[in-house]
Design a protein that fits this description.
heterodimer, A: about 325 residues, alpha/beta, D-Maltodextrin-Binding Protein, domain 2, B: about 250 residues, four-stranded antiparallel β-sheet, 10 strands, about 35% helix
């Protein structure tokens, strides 16, 4: 371990990322401060006030005048206001953060519907697989999908290209060592590093973040190993196409990192994308990996249930690996 | 046994429409110091890369140490040593670790390596530096070490690609003493350079212009033939017809 700093960065950064997404960056909305303004108190308004007060998601900040709502919101002391006029309710939300506003308004509106007219409409929402709607669950597959591209594709391509730049690659190629062996020698350390990383990330997911563990969870290891080999092939392929470390970094980041974040469904749901982007997303390996990992890790389905994703990942691996090896071997 | 260690016949390399090396033919005798001269872009590095098996010729043939470079690349590789113009070494490893790495890549046994490394380090006066990290070495020592790495497996042919680039004149002179030493022990040395004073140190000199060989003889014969005092002047006369720009 001569370059131990890199190893530490590679091992520590994903852990921090996972914990950050798992705990700190939460898409859940808590502690929504609700104020209420009514023209005349009635049973329903009292019931509603009590229901909001009792709900752990909300902090009931009291009854106010309608005129006070705007200054309160401007002052950042209220997130949502409920205004009652003639028995009808209006929800006013502070949309300076649209994500919070949308969820908070939806929460409040469901409480209003429930308390104001429980008889007219009854909706029971039952969320499967992630009953508490914890966003950590959703992020684990996405972060894994990103980390392996980062470690395998970017680091491998940069390290191989650095040998091209320094000329040591030529020294190895003029030696009797076979090109295949040289490639293997370059890939194995990153493969081992990725496996250590995978073990670390899964351990954190199951032990610290509390993802449900079952026999099916082992499928995630097989999926991840395929994805690691796929990412290594990408790294090797990039290294054969570029001449400098900087361009290796740029090509890997632009061609692989950004699609992983934007088009893999890690953050933005693929079904909500415009059709052309959905088509493009089918060639992003991370999309298939993340999709399959969600099924296996969160829904706890067996590998057979994700055969389509497995087949796509397998086919992509074969194509990219054979392309990379052919490119690497071809002497100019 | 044939005393020609390198035999090149009509060796050609094209990159698309550009002919980098145009049907060159020559041969190099055992133990000879063969200088390959030319401006940047004349095709000398491309020619050398083909002889080392790093690049496949478009047409023509060549054999190195009795083996064909296209059909028998493996035995060729075992018999050659190569030093690139960048003193390619692993900067994070120590001097000894670099030597061990290249010895291992060439399939040397541990005992052979120890023997070879001790002799080389003694000879190059580098014993005190054995455990120094290469990235902290001055350029002259890096050059020596790259030379050691290229010769550790005792190859029969040594290819040196502009081995003295960016090195001061005194270090260059010392480096040529190393070349003389290995050549006197029977190693064939094939060296490209654009320092024309170095051409005087070679047994025979080949001048490449625009991908083909314009002159090939001993420095003394060349000077006599072109009626010049130095190889530098011979080169100017021969290369004045060059069409390719020097910085191509």
């Amino acid at each position: 371990m001569r370059d131990w700093r890199t190893v530490v960065i590679v091992l520590v950064m994903p852990v921090i990322l996972l914990l950050l997404f798992g705990f700190a960056i939460s898409m859940e909305v808590n502690d929504v401060r609700v104020v209420m303004a009514v023209d005349a108190h009635s049973d329903s308004s009292r019931r509603l006030a009590a229901a909001i007060d009792a709900n752990p998601c909300f902090i009931f900040s009291g009854l106010v005048n309608e005129q006070q709502i705007e200054p309160l919101m401007r002052g950042g002391r209220a997130d949502v206001a409920l205004v009652g006029r003639n028995g009808r309710w209006q929800i006013i939300a502070d949309a300076s953060n649209p994500v919070i506003a949308r969820s908070a308004a939806a929460y409040v509106s469901s409480v209003v519907t429930e308390t104001a007219s429980p008889q007219t409409l009854e909706v029971t929402v039952h969320t499967l697989y992630n009953p508490s709607l914890r966003s950590a669950y959703n992020f684990v597959p996405g972060i894994l999908g990103m980390i392996f591209i980062l470690v395998c594709a970017i680091m491998t391509s940069v390290s191989i290209v650095s040998e091209k730049e320094s000329g040591t690659m030529d020294m190895l190629l003029v030696s009797p060592a076979r090109p295949g062996l040289i490639i293997l020698g370059k890939l194995i350390p990153y493969f081992i590093l990725s496996c250590v990383l995978l073990a670390l990330m899964l351990a954190i997911s199951y032990i610290v973040l509390g993802l449900p563990f079952s026999a099916e969870s082992l499928g995630s290891i097989i999926l991840s190993l395929i994805y690691i080999v796929l990412s290594l092939s990408i790294g090797l392929l990039v290294s054969t196409l570029v001449a400098t470390q900087l361009s290796a970094l740029i090509v890997s980041a632009m061609l692989f990192m950004i699609p992983v974040i934007m088009l893999s469904g890690m953050i933005f749901p693929i079904d909500n994308m415009p059709q052309p982007l959905q088509w493009i997303s089918t060639i992003v390996p991370a999309r298939w990996y993340i999709e399959a990992m969600r099924r296996v890790m969160i829904q706890q389905l067996p590998l057979a249930a994700v055969w389509r994703e497995l087949a796509m990942l397998g086919a992509m691996t074969l194509v990219l690996l054979s392309l990379a090896i052919t490119k690497f071997r071809s002497r100019q | 046994m044939n005393s020609d260690v390198i035999i090149v016949r009509n060796l050609t390399k094209r990159f698309g429409a550009f002919t980098a090396v145009d049907a060159i033919s020559f041969s190099v005798r055992r133990g000879e110091i063969f200088g390959f001269l030319g401006a940047n872009g004349a095709g000398k590095t491309t020619a050398m890369r083909m002889l080392c098996g790093l690049s496949i010729p478009t047409s023509g043939s060549a054999s190195v140490a009795g083996c064909d470079i296209v059909t028998e690349p493996e035995p060729v590789k075992r018999n050659i040593g190569y030093m690139s113009q960048r003193f390619a070494l692993y900067g994070a490893l120590t001097v000894m670790q670099n030597l061990r790495l290249f010895a291992t890549v060439y399939g040397m046994s541990d005992a052979d390596f120890r023997q070879s490394a001790r002799t080389l380090m003694q000879w190059l006066d580098m014993e005190s530096l054995a455990d120094t990290t290469v990235s902290s070495l001055p350029v002259g020592w890096k050059q020596k070490l790259a030379f050691a790495a290229a010769t550790i497996h005792n190859p029969s042919v040594l290819f040196l690609d502009e081995p003295t680039g960016g090195v001061d004149p005194i270090t260059r002179r010392r480096f040529w003493e190393l070349i003389y030493k290995v050549a006197s022990e029977g190693m064939t040395v094939f060296v490209t350079t654009h320092y024309l004073d170095e051409a005087e140190y070679c047994d025979r000199v080949c001048i490449m212009v625009d991908g083909s060989i314009r002159a090939l003889d001993t420095p003394a014969e060349l000077k006599k033939k072109y009626k010049c005092d130095t190889v530098d002047a011979v080169f100017r006369q021969v290369a004045q017809t060059a069409l390719r720009s020097a910085d191509a």
